[in-house]
Amino acid sequence: LLHVFARFAKWPEAERSGPPPKLGLRHAHFSNFTWHHTRAMNLAAHVAFNPANETVKEMLASAMELLRVVVDKIPRDARSKPGPGNGIYSPNNRAVAAIMLAVAEGRAAQVTGDKDRAVDFVKEAVLLEDALSYMEPPYVLQPVRQCLGKLLLDLGRLPEAEEAYRADLRTFPENGWSLLGLYHSILFQEEDATTKSDTRQEEVADLKRRTEAAWDHADLLIDSSCPAFEASAYLWGSGKA
């Protein structure tokens, strides 16, 4: 459930979720890591909402330090066959945690003003995600390229954002998250262009239609490919944005 809260930036709900019980099970360390990861992302949302709050910034820094410690407590993934990487029969807890940690590092860097480092961390997470073996549903609930695209979009690096969204759509065809991001990335490029392209204008119109179709039956208004990386993510997740 914590993965879902983080996916949709439902931080008030996440705050009401206490730490997991201390059970002597193989996956207990990953569950503990997931809780600490969600807490760090929640604190990052608070920093984004109120950058002048030095106390919350210190809390975020402490949460990230703890997250780096907790990830090392997760047992190494056993290798299995068939499939690339660790194989389809491995839980890949350590591998998924490494991806989540890199995403959290990127988000923390983003909200504290280190934009270039944020991009580097999230790109690292993309590479780690690509190395995972195939699984349905995917091991990672939040495809990382959707967050990379959002980060690049906010930085005005529009061609790079477009590339990230196109790559995600090759992996997850017609998914509404990256259709929305691709629509915005091309739309903004066309708005800035001195010479308009008929082909690009037609693509913008087509992407708008496909995005609306993808979200036609959704019960939540989505305006970001990665709500957790929104500048006002805390309000976004509370439903007050």
Question: What report would you give on this structure?
Answer:
It is built from eleven helices and no strands. It has helices spanning 2-7, 11-15, 28-49, 54-71, 93-111, 115-130, 144-154, 158-171, 176-192, 198-214, 233-238. α7 packs antiparallel against α8 and α9 packs antiparallel against α10 (198-214). The radius of gyration is 18 Å and the shape is globular.
How would you briefly describe this protein structure?
The chain has 241 residues and is mostly helical. It is built from 11 helices and no strands.
DSSP strand tally: 0
Total count of helical runs of at least 4 residues: 11
The structure class reads mainly alpha
- Average pLDDT figure: 89
Percent of residues in beta strands: under 5%
- Shape verdict: globular
N-to-C order of helices and strands: HHHHHHHHHHH
The largest β sheet comes out as: none
Q: How far apart are the termini?
A: 22 Å
Segments where pLDDT lies below 50 for 5+ residues? 234-241
Helix percent reads: 55-70%
Rg over C-alpha atoms, rounded to the nearest angstrom: 18 Å
